[in-house]
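As promised in the previous annual report, we have extended the structural survey to additional targets. Below is the entry for Molybdopterin synthase catalytic subunit.
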Amino acid sequence: MSSLEISSSTFSQEMKLPSSPPLVEGSALEPFRKDLNEIEEKPKDIIKFTAEKLSVDEVSQLVISPLCGAVSLFVGTTRNNFEGKKVISLEYEAYLPMAENEIRKICSDIRQKWPVKHIAVFHRLGLVPVSEASVIIAVSSVHRASSLQAVSYAIDTLKAKVPIWKKSLELPTAFWLVAKLRNELN
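The corresponding structure token record, generated without further manual editing, is:
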């Protein structure tokens, strides 16, 4: 018997969890329920370019909303190979005024296509070692389909239109760079 079967068979009809009491007018919980129903949040577009290491948790926390049941993420990381060559890091550069403007357009396009609440797009600049995040995109929405489609659109459009350039530092290049630095130091 699998652990799932064991777990499900240990519950009998008598072991049902108590249901929440219905909220009645005049109860202590009624104002709390009204407060939750009256929450209004302005949609946020959060865009950041940084040389600092990106945090998935930080970015996802920025888009969480009590009005939403979904937060979808895309995390792009540096992989250790490209076209058969060993990669040790990527280096990113951007024309920041234009890059930020293009990402704002992407956010606007997303809002026209899907009912989303908050959007965060963080992109790393400078050297990004293998396994570290280069880009994190987070979108919140009431239902998952909207945020999943929006995240996919955001990364595809970012790669196609935003002026961010990537250069891979491959192992032979790294050896050349180390040799060059040694020569300059001597």
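The two ends are 69 Å apart (CA to CA). The helical segments are 3-9, 30-37, 56-63, 96-113, 144-161, 171-185. These points will be discussed at the next consortium meeting with the crystallography subgroup.
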